[in-house]
Amino acid sequence: MLLVILGAGASADSALPDAAIPTQAQGWMPPLADELFAPRFHATLVKRCGAVVLAERVRTGVARGESLEQVLARLQADTSDPLRAGQILELQYYLQELLWNCGAHWNTADAGMSNYLTLVNELEEWPVKASQKILYATFNYDTLLEAALTKRFRWNFAKAGDYLRADCAVIKVHGSANWLQVTRYAIQEGT
Question: Which of 33, 73, 109, 147 sits between 20 and 30 A of 19, alpha carbons compared?
Answer without folding.
Answer: 33
